[in-house]
Amino acid sequence: MELGTIISLVLYFVVMLGIGLYAYRKSTSDVSGYMLGGRSLSPSVAALSAGASDMSGWILMGLPGAMFVTGFSSTWIAIGLVIGAWLNYLLVAPRLRVYTELANDAITIPDYFANRFEDKGNALRIVSALVIIIFFTLYTSSGVVAGGKLFENSFGMSYESGLYITTGVVVLYTLFGGFLAVSLTDFVQGCIMFIALILVPAVTYSLLDNPLSSTLNAVNPQMLTWIGAGGAIGIISAMSWGLGYFGQPHIIVRFMSVRSVKDMPTARRIGMSWMIIAALGAVATGVFGAAYTHENGIVVKDPETIFLVLSELLFHPLIAGFLLAAILAAIMSTISSQLLVSSSSLTEDFYKIFINRNATDKELVLIGRISVAAVAILAIYLAYDRNSSILDLVSNAWAGFGAAFGPLVLLSLFWQRMNFAGALAGMVSGAVTVLVWIYAPIEIAGQSLSNHIYEIVPGFIVSSVAIVVVSLATSEPHERIQELFKKVQSNL
Predict the structure, then answer these.
(1) Does 350 reside within a domain?
(2) Of 101, 257, 428, 483, which has the fewest CB atoms closer than 10 Å, so is most exposed?
(3) What is the separation of C-alpha 207 from the centre of its chain, rounded to a whole number of angstroms?
């Protein structure tokens, strides 16, 4: 590896760990500070933190890889995500910020569900925490896989060494610095990703010798079509990724941490501007990369490494190091967010409820740190299968959260008649539908259910119907819950 590349990466690691140390001294003395930053984030930090934790390794590896293979038909994923993110900022962000504070100052999503529906038996809390831990373990492992591939392809290290280095640095600053460290590192990482996703496609396009359309046609004529092999159903499946935003705990928890609901419009403008440019950059990287490698006879063994290939071929080692740091930033920002949310659920929704209800803040912070390490170890174990597809792992976890939590979050914020029974039915039915759709040995025309339509679509529909039907078939919520709902509306 070139000296310039090494220098860039070392500086990146030092900055991340330095932020973790700063956050450790600043906000980890109590559980609210460790897990939610004391609800004090500025709109810019919250927005870029939400974007960076959302756009994990798949934005620099998974999506460019899909574009590299299929061409413009994969663009519908990016379009669906942009629409979903905008609706998430518009519909969920302000109401969730107000609701979680008024509902006994809930600091986790399961905590919010329990307070919103007066879950005295903790059934909602337990099920939602289990969903978070199960699907986040899959999601976190996708980031670890991306880290392993990065170190293997770019640094000549073993895949396993990449897993440990990537996870080790993230665990250090997350374990000690908590939510504030995660959010501040996300802000820096978001800035790095933003620059990289402009720079790489722009330079790649400038070096093309022939018109883009003619080169792509020579690679594969199908790359120029916006309608892939799945036709209209394929477009629906791709765009349905946007439905997942309403149920992603590591994203919507950022809305809970903003210092004031009045900051939401600013956060939305910053977040959406960042996301649109990042998504366009990822799409362009895959398409331009396919054209450039074809023109120059470059063989790309793993399509998901096209960003790595272009970074090393086209840039000075010092810049290449910065671009590789961008991939690490994308990977680490999401892993850290997922580790913290999983840790929060294990601490607040299991340990505090079932083991020690009178635990001190100091004890809960310690348990939170132990949980971070435990989830990281399990994610590394799952990531040992180096043939895992980053996009496949992300899509499964994204669908699970989107179906289990998406309708539940939306309807809990907008529908006063929704009750505990409806919430539990929707969460369970959504998660089960996704798992059945992915893993059940059922085929139609020789293909699995997931190959026909993305599992989040049936999962989201089943969950929504279950919430409405069960809520209407059972008793109305208690007057206290209805009064809380009205109070939230008046505070928006």
Answers:
(1) yes
(2) 483
(3) 33
Q: Are 153 and 302 in contact (CB under 8 A)?
A: yes
Structure tokens at 355: 């083991």
Domains of the chain: total: 1
CATH number at residue 43: 1.20.1730.10
Please give the Cα distance from 148 to 116 (Å, whole number).
41
* Cα–Cα dist 151/136, whole Å: 23
Domain range for residue 19? 3-386
What is the spatial distance between Cα 341 and Cα 50, in angstroms, rounded to a whole number? Answer: 13
Question: The pTM is what?
Answer: 0.81
**Of 200, 188, 195, 197, the residue nearest 333 (C-alpha):** 188
Q: For residues 13 and 332, is the Cβ–Cβ distance under 8 A?
A: no
177 falls within a domain:
yes
Put residue 56 in one of left, alpha, beta given phi > 0 → left and psi -120 to 50 → alpha.
beta
205 domain residue, yes or no: yes
Beta bridge partners of 444: 447
Tens digit of each residue's pLDDT (9 = 90 or more) over 407-465: 999 999 999 899 999 999 999 999 999 989 988 887 777 777 777 788 899 999 999 99
Terminal Cα-to-Cα distance of the chain (whole angstroms): 54
| Closest C-alpha to 242, from 133, 86, 387 | 86
Distance of CA 395 to the CA centre of its chain: 10
